[in-house]
Amino acid sequence: MKKIFLLFAMSVFLLTSAFAGNAKADYPYDRPLTIIVPFGPGGAVDIASRILADYFLQEFKITINVVTKPGGGQALGMNEMLHARPDGYTLAFPGTSALTLTPLLTNVGYSVKNVQPVAQITVMELVFSTHKAVGPHSFADFLTQAKEKPDQTVYASTGAITTQRLYLTKLLQRFHDGMKIRHAAYGSGHEVSTALLGKHINAGFQVPTNILPYVKSGDFQPVAITSKERSKDLPDTPTFRELYADKLTPDDDKWIDLGSWHGLVASSKVPKERIEALQPLLQKALSNPQVIEKFQKVGLSVDYLPPAEFAKVIDATLLLTQDVLQGRKSLD
What we know:
Elements: H1 2-24, E1 33-37, H2 44-60, E2 64-68, H3 75-83, E3 90-92, H4 96-100, H5 102-105, E4 115-124, E5 127-131, H6 139-148, E6 154-157, H7 163-175, E7 182-185, H8 189-197, E8 203-206, H9 208-217, E9 220-225, H10 240-243, E10 260-267, H11 272-286, H12 289-297, H13 307-325
Parallel strand pairs: 1-2, 1-3, 6-7, 6-8
Antiparallel strand pairs: 4-10, 5-8, 5-9
């Protein structure tokens, strides 16, 4: 009888252990995740990814490998994600233009239909900055300089095809008769800041993370920002909404405050249940006070949206892009 009891107890123990082992091995706990950042190292998205990776390791014991893959208007990083096994272990962390602009302008091997949203993480304001020592000292002065010295006036952003270029193209179409201004493309926000610091360009159109240290040091002067209200970090910088207040119509509300959203995406072939499995983890991470504080320290907000809501944001931006391009294959 004792033997039977011991065998029974052993069977229960083995079954329980097996069940516990299987539960622990469920996605996404069973092996490391990879987040591909389609920008250069040290930028806002790279930093945000590493903040999330640290939280996931500490809180969930999940390892996240962050891999930077800049180039091709974010297309290199996106394609690396899409060519990985579609099992949910490889995600990308692109910005607006990777899904809604780049695929419309060039054949990058994918379209928005090949991608499914996982979660919006942050929305970054776009800040137009100049070198404080040499100017121009206002956005209006920059436009005047561009008219008078078109060959000598250059602004830059992080890539040939960016949200910043889309925004400025729309602004110039709407209020300045489609005026053209020379643009320079760099691989990361750090490179744009270095170029502006060295006076190789006249202005940088970037996200706050890349310019705040130089504003604090007195090197850069932000002259306009795309937020609806003035930024608490840049209280003296007028918004584009302020600058064009007397010309705005209700239709302009659709784009005048445009920020550059950034979020996690996966291949459209990844099972939906795996996307859903990530949601409570991301929600917990992005509502954690320490994570929020770390984001804020580098000039980032936390703007979590689940897949369905993030999809609506992507669709709305896609409509704006199509309106700006009007069938063209270039922002030039």
